[in-house]
Amino acid sequence: MKLVSYMVLNRKIFATTAILLVLAACAKKEEPAQQLENLPPEQIFNSAESMLDDNDPEDAAERFSEVERLYPYSEWAKRALIMSAFSYHEGGLYEESRGAAQRYLDFYPADQDAAYAQYLIALSYYDQIDDVSRDQGVTFQALQALRVTIERYPDSEYVTTALLKFDLALDHLAGKEMEIGRYYLKRGHFGAAINRFRVVVEDFQTTSHTPEALHRLVESYLSLGLDQDAQTAAAILGHNFQGTQWYADSYALLRGKGLDATGDTKGNGWLSSIYRRVIKGAWL
């Protein structure tokens, strides 16, 4: 009987301890909110910065938001709002970061940190760009937001980085077109492949994929028996990227068929139009 009583007692002690721990945890969660209401904004702001220093960006963002909630329209609220946008981004909460940054732009459009808020919006899209095998909708959103940063705040310190990321995002989109084009080319769907490579040449001509796109056009047109178009594509490639392996490969393909890289200056096709602009030095 004593043994049974001892076991029952132990279970009661364990259950009581567990309840106390749960209550203590709940109290701990409620305690900061109650304490924050009695603190000045500067102290709340500093505590949020300490959370950032401790690599706790999500909690830091929520703490910065408390400054905005408890002291709206104050200078501390303004500072806390941009910091919450930054903290959310650091924590990988990109939608929340965009929301806070957009609120900052809505409330303080002429403030010195407005450029940074817009850049954070762009960055929140840019940092979500996946590999070229996935849908590129977020890449278009990143490009749009980066363009706004560049055009609306041309003198800000973020323009140089925004321009770089804009070019990289364009390169990413061109890479997607190239991936699909190669897929069609390997399967003998030459017309569909040409459409993809044409997008790269016409819309993404400043990207690193342009030389390969021109070479793939040479391959595709030769496969269809459109020798003049293949020669024109090779002529454009040679004019702009003669030192590349892509031009060497295209030249070898043409020579194998007894052709040379001569551009068509009289045709009405899209490649002929580009070739005429190349000769005049108005393209690439």
From TrEMBL:
Keyword Lipoprotein appears in the UniProt entry: yes
Membrane topology: Lipid-anchor
Oligomer status and interactors: Part of the Bam complex.
Protein name, as recorded: Outer membrane protein assembly factor BamD
Pfam families referenced in this protein's UniProt entry, alphabetically: YfiO (PF13525)
Family: Belongs to the BamD family.
Signal peptide start and end residues: 1-27
Assigned keywords, A-Z: Cell outer membrane, Lipoprotein, Membrane, Palmitate, Signal
Keyword Signal on entry: yes
Functional description taken from the UniProt entry: Part of the outer membrane protein assembly complex, which is involved in assembly and insertion of beta-barrel proteins into the outer membrane.
Domain of life where this protein originates: Bacteria
Gene name linked to the record: comL
Subcellular location: Cell outer membrane
InterPro entries for this protein: BamD, BamD-like, TPR-like_helical_dom_sf
Outer membrane lipoprotein BamD-like domain ranges (all copies): 40-234
